[in-house]
């Protein structure tokens, strides 16, 4: 098995441990923009801006920065957005 294949297997196992499952959140542009907004990043209607935001997020999160919001990217976006919402609620209390 290649190193990439092994990382994929390990990533899947770890994902199961931390609550990821086979159902991937939607990766449609509106959902992605909402997730970014939860993190305080406002993205306009331009598709190129969204692709660049995804690419930047991927590079900061240690993913392959291809600009495609695949399952791993979306899962991390969901986790980061949830953390940002919790932080915001904590600060508001």
Question: What do you see in this structure?
Answer:
Helices cover about 65% and strands about 0% of the residues. The chain is globular, with a radius of gyration of 14 Å. About 15% of the residues have low confidence.
What form results from the Cα inertia axes?
globular
Strand content: under 5%
Mean pLDDT across residues: 79
How many strand segments? 0
Write the layout of secondary structure elements.
Elements: H1 3-17, H2 29-38, H3 47-61, H4 71-92
Essential attributes:
0% strand, 93 residues, mainly alpha, single chain
What's this, in brief?
The chain has helices at 3-17, 29-38, 47-61, 71-92. It is an all-alpha fold.
């Amino acid at each position: 098995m290649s190193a990439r294949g092994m990382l994929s297997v390990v990533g899947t196992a770890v994902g199961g441990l931390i609550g990821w499952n086979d159902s991937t959140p939607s990766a449609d542009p509106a959902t992605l923009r909402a997730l970014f907004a939860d993190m305080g990043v406002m993205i306009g209607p331009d598709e190129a801006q969204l692709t660049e935001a995804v690419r930047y997020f991927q590079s900061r999160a240690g993913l392959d920065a291809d600009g495609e919001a695949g399952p791993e990217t979306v899962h991390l976006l969901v986790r980061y957005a949830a953390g940002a919402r919790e932080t915001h609620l904590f600060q508001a209390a």
